[in-house]
Amino acid sequence: MSPAVVGWLDAQTLVDAFGLGAVYALMAVGIGLVFGVLRLVNFAYGQLIMAGAYTLAFTSQAGWPTWAGILMCFVVVILLSGAMDRLVFRPLRTQSPAVMLVTTFAVAFILQNVALLIDVRDDTIGEPAASVASLNRAITVWGVEVRKVTIVAVVVAVVALSLLALLLTRTRIGLQMRAAATDFATARLLGVRANTVIATAVLLSAVIAAAVSILLTVQNPLVAPDFALKETIIVLVGVVVGGIDRLWTATLGGFSIGFATGVINGALPTDKTVFLPSVVFALVILVLLVRPSGLFARGGSSLVERV
Amino acid sequence: MRRLEPWLQLAAPALLVVATAVVGSFTSRATEIYFLTAILSVAIVVAIYVFVGNSGVLSFGQLSFVAVGAFASGVMTVPLESKQNVLPDLFPLLRDHTIGDIPALVLATVVGAAFAFLVGVPLMRLSGLAAGIATFAVLEITHNLLREWTKIGPGATTLSLVPETTDLTRAAIGTVVIIAVAFGYQRSRFGRSLRATREDASAAQAVGIDVHRQRLWAFTLSGALAGLAGGLYVHMLGSITADQVYLELTFVTLAMLVIGGITSLWGAVVGALAVSGLDSFLSEAEQGVGVGGVTVDLPQGARLVVLGALMAIVLVLRPSGLTGGREFGLPRLGRREHVTRDATSEGAA
What we know:
The complex is a heterodimer of chains A (about 300) and B (about 350).
Chain A: H1 3-9, H2 11-38, H3 45-61, H4 66-89, H5 97-119, E1 127-128, E2 138-141, E3 144-147, H6 148-170, H7 172-182, H8 184-189, H9 194-219, E4 222-223, H10 229-242, H11 247-267, H12 276-290, H13 302-306
Antiparallel strand pairs in A: 1-4, 2-3
Helix pairs in contact in A: 1-11, 2-6, 2-7, 2-9, 2-10, 2-11, 3-4, 3-5, 3-9, 3-10, 4-9, 6-7, 6-9, 7-9, 10-11, 11-12
Chain B: H1 5-25, H2 29-55, H3 62-77, H4 80-86, H5 92-95, H6 101-123, H7 128-148, H8 168-187, H9 189-199, H10 201-206, H11 211-237, H12 247-260, H13 265-287, E1 289-291, E2 294-296, H14 302-317, H15 335-344
Antiparallel strand pairs in B: 1-2
Helix pairs in contact in B: 1-2, 1-8, 1-13, 2-8, 2-11, 2-12, 2-13, 3-6, 3-7, 3-11, 6-11, 8-9, 8-11, 9-11, 12-13, 13-14
């Protein structure tokens, strides 16, 4: 049997891939929520996560207890996200997707370089976040190494998604958000307050970003200005591949690209793993060619005509 | 006056590039690099504009063709006597031959066009976000292969020893050629057909325009121009890594296009020059410069923050770009005339 086939059956690979997929699924929800109501692909989402990670690092260095650092992380990410919505997204709501996307590039660029300015004050790039690192230890289950954070990631993803599902289907604001995501103009005519709905979506997506920043910081405790950048790009790709028009397809897309990346990484022979991005993105192109409106989208191709 | 105006639309951007080169030639060697960089930014942004501006389809992949052009031209001009030592893993065909710098630019153009055509045949069926992500995937694959595959290039190391033959004169000539080709294309029936699909794809199809074919033409032409721009770029730098023609340059050049005004050639040129001019000024300001008696002295690293903030401000206040997405026109010739002329021009038939 070739090593590739053994890789496919490897339980360790599957567990790792599942953990990666769970984190990506959470990020996909955060991006998909905002896209639903604003039709905005928020490239700066990764910088929100980066800001949260820096908060963890600095509070940990200042000797704060872990719970206070985590609380602060949520506060910072939520405030930053609110400011982003108010200052940048709100004036641009009616603009074309290209303009909005490029503006979020600019925002990402600003935040990343502000972080760099703050980070290099001590003449080194990268700040360690020691307080949350203990979660990174592994426990062994049936011969498979499972890091605690993987379990936490999966639990957080499941809990967050369930709460979100309840919110969207069982509450008034959830109903309004779904209405706004389907047809914002009609929803407003029927009395849905645009600013409230958008603010709620932005807030929820910020809470998720803060949670993700904790999960990612545990796995990679050295925080640098490009923290979470690569993950954000891959999740954005995954969200579109899954089908950005609906939250569930977007989330599944995020999970799938994480899971697929993990599995392909395990399946590739060791000397070929440097070509992992090529394999993953070739797969992305294939899926898009066959199903341009998303792998999990139902029939139609509304996305193709929209932009 | 009306006869003259189309030529003004070509002459204005071309003159702007030539003027930049002339001003640059009077400055010191250290400052000259800013002008060179600005001119080559124009070359890259106009190449992107040929596809993105005319088709209205956002592509993150055009830098792949710049990268491929740069590496093709760079690898083939490294002097033969050092090539076997610095790039021993290359395919024998690449390792044992070296060509002159002008043929290398032609090669960059051809390779860019061929790669764009191959990629475009399947991908041009997509629009909207799917097209954006698929073209982005092309960029990722190109970068990954250029970075890791040592049979076609330097791999993760720097490709150096490339002759630095792109001076101000050659950069200006190359960029004016790129602008002229872009102008000729957008006034041809192909260009007009594609612009029709941008405004209303269904209506364009209804009058018999093949959207896929028109997009493919523009994508290939854009790939050719991007390849040429990449060739000029590598011969300016003298050395290059795969990371230099990847994400950051993609974002910066796209931002230049959007800031200038995505739907016009004039916008592409103005955006590229404005952003690179500002960038150069801010780099100087980090060392401290005097402006009108006031000394501006920014802390190190503040340049990129200011640049990003100004970009965001322009986009929030003027989302259609500095030029409003219109071609160059004399102030007296108003907006209305521009529209009617476009609609009734003989070229649309």
